[in-house]
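Design a sequence for this backbone.
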C-alpha cells in the first residue's frame, strides 16, 4: 500500500524524509509541493529519480475530481471527489464577496442518522484521513487555478479562502483526524489558512464540543439544533436521545468562554414539525442572553425522506418572530439548487447510476 504523505505535519515529513535516507530539506520541499497542489511529477525541485520513487510508493494528492457540476444559477461548483480506495465524497465551492468558500466532507457517509439527511442513509463507511480532507481543499485550489487561468492574467491564482466542515459526515465523530486537519490548514509552510475562516458544524456531540474548546483551534462552531425542545429534536435527530438541548447549550457557552467566538445555530425549517411561530418563540426563550446567531434553512426535501420543506412565508414569519425577540438570525442563502447542492445528494445519484445502489 502507498504511504499517504498529505496528512503529515512539516515536522513529521522531515522526520520521514530522514528515515528514507534523504536530507531533511527534501522533507520541506515535498511538504511545500503537496500544499501547492502538485503531484510528485510536478515537484521540479526534486531529482527525477526521487520523483519516480515517490510516485511509486507514496500519495501526494489523495482527492481527485471525479465529477464537477457548475450551477447555472450562481456559479456554485459541486464536486464529487474520488479517494485512493475508490470511495467518493462531495464538496461544494461557493463564491462570496469575501472569497471562495469550500464545504468539505469529513467521513464517507455518516452514522448520526438524522431523519432529513441524505448522507446518513447507508450509515458511515469510514472516516476520512486528515490528508484526504486537505486533499479536498488542494483539489479545489487546483481546479480554481485551472478555471481562472484563461481569464485575465493575474499575479496570484484564486484560492480557497474559507473552509466549512459541513459536507457528509459528523466532524466530531472523527475527532483526531479533523483536529489534525485543522492544524495542517494553518501550517506556515502550507496553505496558511486562518482558522478564523473555518467553520465546523456538529449535530451536538457534547464531550467533543468541550474538548474542541480547549484545543486552541478557534474555529467557528456551528450547531445543528433544528428544534426548540428535546421532544421535537428527538423526532428529527437520534443524537437527541443521547444529549439534551440544555447540555448542548452549556457546551456552547463553554466554547464561547474559551474561544471568544459566538456559536451559530443551524435550524432547518420542516413543515408541520418545527417551523411555527410557537417554536420560534420557544427557541428565542432558550437562546436569550446568549451570544449567538441563528441560521435558518428551509429543509431541502430529499427523495428518500418524507419530510417537507416550508414556504417562503413560513421562513419570513419564523425570522420575524426571532427578530422581535431580539435573537440575531438570518435566512441562509441557498446555492447550487440546480446541481443537487444539498448534503449527500450528488453522491447518492452517482451511486444510483452505477446501478449497485451502494
Ligand atoms: N454532521 C454535521 C455536519 C454535516 S450536515 C452536522 O450535523 O452539523 C450540514 C448541515 O446540513 C447540518 O446543519 C445538517 O443538519 C443540515 N442538513 C442535512 N440535510 C439537510 C436537508 N435535507 N435540508 C436542510 N439541511 C440539511
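Sequence:
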Amino acid at each position: 500500500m502507498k504511504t499517504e504523505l498529505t496528512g503529515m505535519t512539516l515536522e513529521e515529513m522531515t522526520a520521514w524524509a530522514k528515515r528514507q535516507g534523504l536530507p531533511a530539506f527534501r522533507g520541506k520541499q515535498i511538504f511545500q509541493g503537496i500544499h501547492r497542489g502538485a503531484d510528485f511529477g510536478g515537484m521540479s525541485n526534486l531529482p527525477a529519480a526521487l520523483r519516480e520513487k515517490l510516485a511509486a510508493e507514496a500519495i501526494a494528492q489523495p482527492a481527485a475530481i471525479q465529477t464537477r457540476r457548475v450551477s447555472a444559477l450562481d456559479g456554485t461548483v459541486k464536486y464529487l471527489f474520488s479517494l485512493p480506495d475508490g470511495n467518493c465524497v462531495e464538496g461544494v465551492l461557493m463564491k462570496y464577496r469575501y472569497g471562495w468558500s469550500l464545504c468539505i466532507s469529513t467521513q464517507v457517509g455518516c452514522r448520526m442518522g438524522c431523519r432529513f439527511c441524505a448522507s446518513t442513509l447507508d450509515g458511515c463507511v469510514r472516516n476520512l484521513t486528515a490528508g484526504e480532507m486537505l486533499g479536498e481543499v488542494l483539489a479545489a485550489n487546483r481546479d480554481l487555478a485551472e478555471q481562472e487561468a484563461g481569464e485575465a492574467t493575474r499575479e496570484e491564482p484564486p484560492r480557497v479562502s474559507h473552509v466549512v466542515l459541513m459536507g457528509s459526515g459528523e466532524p466530531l465523530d472523527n475527532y483526531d483526524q479533523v483536529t489534525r486537519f485543522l492544524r495542517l490548514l494553518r501550517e506556515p509552510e502550507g496553505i496558511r489558512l486562518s482558522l478564523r475562516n473555518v467553520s465546523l458544524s456538529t449535530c451536538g456531540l457534547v464531550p467533543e464540543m468541550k474538548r474542541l474548546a480547549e484545543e486552541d483551534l478557534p474555529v467557528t462552531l456551528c450547531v445543528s439544533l433544528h428544534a426548540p425542545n428535546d421532544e421535537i429534536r428527538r423526532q428529527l435527530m437520534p443524537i437527541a436521545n443521547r444529549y439534551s438541548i440544555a447540555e448542548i447549550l452549556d457546551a456552547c457557552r463553554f466554547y464561547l468562554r474559551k474561544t471568544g467566538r459566538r456559536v451559530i445555530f443551524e435550524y432547518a425549517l420542516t413543515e408541520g414539525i418545527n417551523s411555527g411561530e410557537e417554536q420560534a418563540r420557544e427557541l428565542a426563550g432558550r437562546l436569550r442572553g446568549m451570544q449567538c446567531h441563528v441560521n435558518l434553512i428551509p429543509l431541502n426535501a430529499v427523495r428518500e425522506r418524507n419530510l417537507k420543506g416550508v414556504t417562503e412565508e413560513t421562513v419570513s414569519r419564523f425570522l420575524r418572530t426571532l427578530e422581535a425577540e431580539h435573537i440575531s438570525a438570518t435566512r441562509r442563502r441557498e446555492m447550487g439548487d440546480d446541481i443537487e447542492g444539498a448534503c449527500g445528494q450528488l453522491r447518492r445519484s452517482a451511486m444510483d447510476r452505477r446501478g449497485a445502489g451502494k
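The chain has a mean pLDDT of 92.
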